What does this fold into?
Amino acid sequence: MKRMRIRRRTVYNNNGRYNNIQRILVTQYKTPQPLYLPNKTITMPFALRFHCLLLLFYAAVPLSQAALVVTIGDSYAAGTGVHALREQYDDTYCYVEKDTIPGGKYASTRGMQHVVTACAGDTIDTTVAQWNDLQLRYTDEVANQWEGSVIIVSTGGNSALTRRGENFEESLARVLRTRRFHEDELNQVANLDAVQNELVDFYSQLAVDAGEATVRVMGYPLVFNSNRIKCFIPGIRVKEADFFDSTVVELNEVIVSAIEEVKTTFSNFDIRYVDVAPSYGSGACSPFKFRHIRDINVRAPVTSFHPTQRGYDRSYGAFLRTILT
It folds into this structure.
């Protein structure tokens, strides 16, 4: 059983001007839902594995400490890509799927409230705005530094810019319409140092504001993950796919470095990186329908090159391992 409330918030740009309106999706799970176990992780008889994980799961975070599960950030936090059609999303403006993303699954197993402010296209700056808005809305949690809450973050991809000044989404579009994308130096990401500094500032803010929370920073999966022979997306060659995936690796390294830097100052802050890339198998280049990353989706272009539900299930498995260990 669950109850969902939709709250609206206004976001302003750096000049204080009105930018857009986003909806905060709040789901309260009244009773814990069955524990979800990702596929393809069976290393012992299922019944034994289930009971072992169940005991570890409930020992890891006592119910008495349960507060909120908060999901903030960009499209990879929002669940963009789960559905093929825009109208299928809980929030059609931000392309949010609240229930089957890692935060939703975790909240349902714990009987916790899931709050989603993530939105497709958001940068680090707008993720900070999401967090500041939550600070205003949840005064009880603020007073306790969000003790017992779990905060899931995915941000940085839309802040990384190439030498052309193009972001993540614009670079993906260029891969499709140009040849030899990988040979043009203008397609290299040029501001990773600035991205790292922004992330350090944001994670440090979380350490101050939510020092008693559990924070998990989700890495990005390899988008194309091509085989050595062929990428099955028309117009994309293996070398181009590999070049773009290498920028994802660089971005993930920046995220890790930012977390490590923050940990040197806030050593007791429970913030960890969730490496999802090894958990993903078939990327957008795969010819199979059960791929973990969508290829081109002309019906809802924003969802192109984002995880499918199978992909988000893999992300949840990686997330859960960082909670249980």
